[in-house]
Structure formats: C-alpha cells, structure tokens
Amino acid sequence: MSRIGKLPIPLQGAKVTLSGNTVTAVGARGEDTFVLPDGITIEVTGEMVNVNRRDDSPDQRRLHGVTRAQLNNRILGVTRGHTLELVVQGKGYQAELVGKAIEMQIGFSHKVVVSIPEGLKVELKLGQNTFSLVIAGNDKQLVGNFASTLYKIRPVEPYNLIGFRYSDQQIKRKAAKSATS
User: Fold this and answer.
1) In whole numbers, what is the pLDDT of the chain averaged over residues?
2) What is the mean pLDDT of residues 158-172?
3) Which residue pairs, CB below 8 angstroms and at least 24 apart, start in 41-50?
4) Distance from C-alpha of 80 to C-alpha of 82, rounded to nearest angstrom
C-alpha cells in the first residue's frame, strides 16, 4: 500500500462531493474540481476523505499517492489557499504593480513586464534595493508555475545573492576570487 495514498485527508471545513469520477471541493475561498483516474475511488467518512485503489498493479500504485496529494492540495486551496514568496535583491532593483501586471527594473536595459495569471493575487513589499513578491492563489500548481516563471527571469547568483530567490531557499555562497601574486 502507498504510504502517502493510505493517509486520510482532513476536510478542514471543506465540503467534498463526488459525481461520477469528478470530485468537487467547496470551501471558504471558492470551489475546485478534480477528475479521478480510472481505478481510483474516494470515500468521505465524517471529516476525513480516504483514497482507495482497485488493485495492486504498478499503474494503480503510482496513481494512488499522486491522486491523494492532488486532492489534498485542492482541499487546502479552497480552505486556506497556497502562497509562495520571492525575494528580489540587487542595486537599483524596483517593482510596481500596474493593473494585472508586474513592472520590474531588475538590472536589464529595459523594464520587464509580466502579466499576472487569472486566479492569482500578487502582493508587493518594497525595501531598499530589494522587494518581495507574495504570490497567493487556490491552485498550488498555478502558484508554483508563476513563481518559477518569475524566478527564471533572473535566478539568484551565488556570489552577491543578486536576483530572484524563494524566501525559504538556502543559497550556498561562493567566495570571491582572490588574486595571487
């Protein structure tokens, strides 16, 4: 049995309904749907949801834990939501929110404009030569994809820590090159 798949999912105030193979989770932050793969079933008992599989074939074992994790992320999304924070450091780095876009000056010869996808909220925290972007939304995959898109624009470099980095990311700093005589 899958170690992840056999764990029950707490509902935490969400309401889960099943129609055919489509699971709908409704919570304080909205509604989300998920289509169950063939051979995977769920049962709602009280304040817990259990994910079961048809048999022990390799395909079913693979899908068991993944389906449980996806369903758990949907339930967490409609109850609490998902957030990621990106910290941007660099001399003269600036950003501002313009409508549904982020306009940034991050060391290029031009401003970088990135549009915010539908369903996400971005909060900007300004500092001196640094700013933070807090990305929040109900869909964990959408939040992560948008954060990685921003990260790829200017990844953090290990010498001076200039660029985008996740707030919980540990960067192994490199020493500056020293001249030998």
Assistant:
1) 93
2) 92
3) 42/16, 42/18, 42/71, 44/11, 44/16, 44/18, 47/10, 47/11, 48/8, 48/9, 48/10, 48/11, 49/8, 49/9, 49/11, 49/16, 49/75, 50/8, 50/9
4) 7
Edge to edge, what strands does the sheet with 22-27 contain? 15-19, 22-27, 30-35
Domain ranges in the chain with CATH number 3.90.930.12? 9-79, 82-166
CATH architecture assigned to 9-79:
Alpha-Beta Complex (3.90)
Q: What angle do CA 15, 17, 20 make, to 5 degrees?
A: 165
36-87 pLDDT tens trace: 999 999 999 989 999 999 999 999 999 999 999 999 999 999 999 999 999 9
pTM of the model: 0.88
| Topology given in CATH for the domain delimited by 82-166 | Outer Surface Protein A; domain 3 (3.90.930)
